Amino acid sequence: MAAEVQVAALPPATRARAQPWWHRLFSPVDGASLAVFRIIFGAILLVEVYRYFSHEWIRSYYVDPIFHFTYYGFGWVKPWPGNGMYWHFVLIGIASVGVMLGAWYRFSAALLFVTFTHVFLLDQAYYLNHFYMICLLSLLMIFIPAHRLLSIDAWRKPAKQSDDVPAWARWLLLAQLSIVYFYAGVAKLNTDWIHGEPMRSWLAERVDTPLIGRFFTEERVVLLFNYGGLAFDLFIVPLLLWKRTRVVAFLWVMAFHILNMALFSIGIFPWLMLLATLLFFRPDWPRVVFKGWRRVRTEPLAIQPQFPRLTVGLTAAYMIIQLAVPLRHFVYHGNVHWTEEGHRFSWHMKLRDKQATARFFVTDPQSRQTWEVAPRLYLTARQTQKMSTRPDMILQMAHHIARDQAVKRGIDHPLEVRARVMASLHDRDRQLLVDPTVNLAAERRSLASARWILPLNE
């Protein structure tokens, strides 16, 4: 008690240094930038819902397919029957509006996380890094008080309106965005990227791009794109954090994402990352831009955390997981772009060009009869293309074929399924991806390294 009295008697600056370091996470910062991010985040997801309806992706991705490649441990996540998936996306849209407007914000954020993550987990064939990032951001939004300003909740309950939020809320989002950028750069530190692949092949396919396309076959332009992308991912976060280089860095962010939008079909990702990068500016930047937006109170209010140690502990645990998961592919043997082991959830974005064809052969071990089963009997064209290049999905397909063929032929004993998959990574010669002699129907799904994946011939 005496120590607390002594600390309280110190000057403000000295008192701040005398407190535990984690108390600084609860120091008040202007909540204007978080409020703007909340509006942007909800609006972008609402646009994505509209795109799914307008392009009929709900039907082609989740209603028409008769088989879905579920994630390991999430086989229980299934599409809703009938028109259920359409209503599910309506719920995502409603939740997006709730987050955007700050209406019943906590509930809306939780609903958005649950409904969007459900869609994300339905099929690995539709995995996108920015969908994974949306799942993470929507989870964080549940706990981040981004509804204290510019929200219906603040209008409904003026007593809960506040100009300020705890510093950890902003820094948690900044840390998540920084992880995405940095690990995208780390993933580019591989032999193929350093030597210009697959960028060389992609640019060669886009020579008809207005104004700049005619330069895409020049080697110096290929290396400029390659090393420019590597430098961007590795250094953009420090440049954004440093006040002196922040404006120039943001202009680089704009140029990078606008160019990506022009060259590659990557949906809402460039817009999401571009607008989210505004969080790197000072917390009150919207008040500077919009001159008429003034604070309700001149001085920031002291924020008293209810469970400070629990908040710090959970935040630390979350960050440790986010830092560790992208590194797990180093535990596996072989080229991650070939084996795909540890590729997902690691921010490996636009790093590989892989082509493959897969054929499946079923054998009845009792009659020794063998017949071929075409994947197109179960899969859409997109599912087939994705499955053919990803060993874990090839294994799932083999398991499904074994079960389905046994039922259709009235066989009451296990069938054997083997796959002959010829694949090419970055214009290498085509080679076998999986061992064609292994009965994949007898191989269990696991997170361990698969012995039946053949090594890449460098």
Written account of the structure:
The protein is of the alpha+beta class and 458 residues long. It has 19 helices and six strands. The protein has helices spanning 2-8, 12-18, 32-54, 57-63, 84-101, 105-120, 129-143, 152-156, 167-187, 191-194, 199-204, 219-241, 246-263, 269-276, 285-289, 308-324, 336-339, 381-389, 391-408, and strands at 28-30, 164-166, 354-363, 370-373, 416-425, 431-432. The strands form two sheets. A four-stranded antiparallel beta sheet has the order 4-3-5-6. Strands 1-2 form a two-stranded antiparallel ribbon. Helix 7 packs antiparallel against helix 9 (167-187). It is globular. Mean pLDDT is 90; it is low at 1-10.
Instruction: Label the overall shape.
Output: globular
Distance between the termini: 67 Å
How large is the count of helical segments?
19
Question: Which class best fits the helix and strand makeup?
Answer: alpha+beta
Helical content (DSSP H or I, runs of 4+): 40-55%
Average predicted local confidence, pLDDT: 90
| Series of secondary-structure elements, N-terminal to C-terminal | HHEHHHHHHEHHHHHHHHHEEHHEE
Concise summary:
This protein is of the alpha+beta class.
Question: Which terms would index this structure?
Answer:
single chain, 458 residues, alpha+beta, four-stranded antiparallel beta sheet, two-stranded antiparallel sheet, 6 strands, 7% strand, disordered N terminus
What's the SSE blueprint?
Layout: H1 2-8, H2 12-18, E1 28-30, H3 32-54, H4 57-63, H5 84-101, H6 105-120, H7 129-143, H8 152-156, E2 164-166, H9 167-187, H10 191-194, H11 199-204, H12 219-241, H13 246-263, H14 269-276, H15 285-289, H16 308-324, H17 336-339, E3 354-363, E4 370-373, H18 381-389, H19 391-408, E5 416-425, E6 431-432
Antiparallel strand pairs: 1-2, 3-4, 3-5, 5-6
Helix pairs in contact: 3-5, 3-14, 5-6, 6-7, 7-9, 9-12, 9-16, 12-13, 13-14, 18-19
